[in-house]
Amino acid sequence: MRFLVLAAALVCSFQVWATTSPEALYMPKPVYPEGMSNLRGHARISLNLHNDGSVSDVKVLNATHPAFAEAAINAAKLWRFKPWTPSADMPAIIDANNDMIFAPQNDITIPFQKPVTAVVSQTCRALNDEVAQWRHDQPSRPLSAMRSFALVHAYLVLPVLSGSIEYPASLSATDDFDNVLPEIVRKCRSQPKGRFIDHLPETVRVRL
């Protein structure tokens, strides 16, 4: 097996002005830059967290290489947090910093990180179109075999092969995902401006 790399160990302890940190719903790891499998590094970013769960103004404060800086920004722009009601402890906009550590590691899921991130970040409108096309072209096949759903399912199982996760834990996440597929389709149909990731179970989101 060729040597793969992982953008490892995000330090998720946000340093914020508020006394309570927002709850993360989706924090995809940065994609390790191509051609840098033998390099370790880090990138420190700043960003604003909004009470609707979105992020903005993602900037690199420092990085050991421009490619790590770019990877960090691209990942952080996709982060989403649980919405909150503004208060004295949790204002509507929170300034935050985060350190991303890049370290070589043997991980079988690396080649799939980018396509899976693209799939779960797509809008419900795009997913609705895919579901409609799938049902038209493959009326006798289950939704679980549709590309977007099959890709996420496979990604949840892959860590078992590399030994980075035990089979029971992987099985639990894949069962949760498969069981919620009809609900995802219903919610996306009624909320086309939403995103696929917003309707995934917590047990699935934490593994993406």
UniProtKB/TrEMBL annotation:
A UniProt-annotated Pfam family: TonB_C
Residue runs in coiled coils: none
Gene Ontology terms describing biological process: transmembrane transport
Extent of the signal sequence: 1-18
Domain TonB C-terminal stretches: 29-84
Keyword annotations: Membrane, Signal, Transmembrane, Transmembrane helix
Source organism, top-level taxon: Bacteria
Transmembrane among keywords: yes
Annotated localization: Membrane
A cellular component annotation (GO) from this entry: membrane
Record-linked SUPFAM superfamilies: TolA/TonB C-terminal domain
Membrane-related topology note: Single-pass membrane protein
Protein name from the UniProt record: TonB family C-terminal domain-containing protein
